[in-house]
Amino acid sequence: MKVLRIMVALAVALTLAAEVSAQSRGRLRITGKVLNEAGQPVEGADVRAAKKGEAEPEIRSTRTNKEGEWTLAGLAAGEWVVEAMKDGVAATVTETLTEAVSSKTVTITFGKPPAAAAAAPSAPDPTAEITAEDARAIKLAQEGKLAEARKIYEDLLVKYPTVYQINAMLSQMYAAENNVAKGMEHVKIALEKEPTNVDYQLLHAELLMEAGDKAAAQKILDTLDVPKAKNPRAFMNSAIHKINSGDKAQAEQAVELLTKLHAQFPNEHLVLYLRGRAYMIGTNLDLAKADLEQYLSRSIAATPECKPALTADASVTINAPGSSTTTTSKTSGKNTTLDVLPSHCSQILQASQLLQQLSKK
After folding, report:
1. Which pLDDT score, from 0 to 100, does residue 127 have?
2. pTM value?
């Protein structure tokens, strides 16, 4: 679920959420119907989809019409999990999209409603409400409305104080707002209830890093297996700290960690950039060049609006957050304004500049 930031100490900000969002978008589509157990169309069912393998997946949503029909367009190739829900009843299917087939059709069939619900009205299903509100909070966070997103989790916690998982959701939102103390407070509550939860431990480690206690954070990470992680953020921060040390031995450790992350999260382009940086410290320039080339290829394919900033004769000035990036050609002196996130395009630009340096060696 995604949109929480990576705090970095490298020369430029690394805005992962924008890149992840771009990875989920494409030209493919899924259409389908939602049916009840009798095979009749279900009107007004909420349909949501998320691409598997993304650290912070973008949630795509729609609602069925009178015929139970729905469409989700603008999807990228890959494996998608599609869920339909209405009145506390839900069903999920998984569909793989490929560039070879532009559209796929699926049918989602609800099972029999719970007997208790059929016998008499019952209280709202907390799971269904929390899931729906979580999706709403994520959307707000992706739009930069962090305070509004946090308020959703705070209200849920007041309504369902025994659902400790909400504390973890709230902790992540506090982390996104750089409120480490409050984030730590709530993740500890979740960990008290479920101390072996890998996601909670990773969030705890990330908050410790941001609080400056790198040793305690690394101690937690050393006990966890990368394949068990659903989100690479804390491990990536660990690699960043090793890279920033400038020490060859730690750079080799970063390469080993990032190689595992690349196998577990192949769609995380940022891993390639970081591993390229680590290879440069270890003076393995051929591998550094290969990783940076692959990072640029994937990033430009996902965000073509940044491509004009990468011309060989251009110098780029990064303006304040929220403004545009201005590219000035050294040969023509003309300016081109790019309506993109400054930190995102600057990340790609820096990778390009590093690659140019390597090509001269």
Report:
1. 82
2. 0.51
